[in-house]
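Researcher: Please translate sequence to structure tokens.
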Amino acid sequence: HLSFSRHRNDIKVSVNDFIIKAAAVTLKQMPDVNVSWDGEGPKQLPFIDISVAVATDKGLLTPIIKDAAAKGIQEIADSVKALSKKARDGKLLPEEYQGGSFSISNLGMFGIDEFTAVINPPQACILAVGRFRPVLKLTEDEEGNAKLQQRQLITVTMSSDSRVVDDELATRFLKSFKANLENPIRLA
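Model: Translation complete:
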């Protein structure tokens, strides 16, 4: 179970900030997923800029967390907060929402467990993040006795353009993403 209470300048670090960081770190580890498809074919991207879906009165916008792999969790939280406010206020500049190398859409705050997100061309991938939900898991204590333990689980799915990120590569990405998210020390 993840619990966050770290604050700076009244900006709380959220689970979504860790998801953004885990995706960015995984893209750095697996540059073959950090690609786009233009009219001529696949294009390797030299930057890791994460587009984050934000619901506004005028529809969905995807402000970009630039160079997300190089940012710390608090920097990501600060950027998400500032860009989300600008998006909702209709004040995003084009360079703050056009481009990006990879997208994340989180509908957990709406009570959605899981969904399939639509890729934002020319990007090759998007993560769809559902809500945290409690589940019971059978575990063992130190003496080997069975016990029930409540855990918080989240479902993350990925849509990918199979011309550049096939099922095998997408599966490896998700496996690495899961390992990174479950071990926050890897995100440093």
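Researcher: Any highlights?
Model: The first strand starts at residue 7 and ends at 8.
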